[in-house]
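Let's practice the habit of predicting before peeking. Look at the sequence and jot down your guess about where helices and strands might fall. Then scroll down.
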Amino acid sequence: MLNDDQLDKLRVDGTKIRIVRDALEQNDVVGIVVAWDDEYVLIRRQNRRVVKVKRSYAVQPASEERRWSLD
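Done guessing? Here is the structure:
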C-alpha cells in the first residue's frame, strides 16, 4: 500500500500506474492518480473515466511488465 507522499509524487509527476486487483489482466486499472483518501484512490483512465479503487491493491508502474502474486 502506498503512503500519501508516494501517491502525491505519482499525481504531481503524472506517472501512469497499474492497479492489479486479481489474476486477470483485464481487471487491471491503468491510469494516473487523481485523488485519494484513507481507504480509496481515484484513477483517471485513458478514456477519461475515473475509477475508485481500494488502496490495498497492488500498484505498479504501467511501463513495467505486469506482476501478480497471492501475497
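How did you do? The mean pLDDT is 93.
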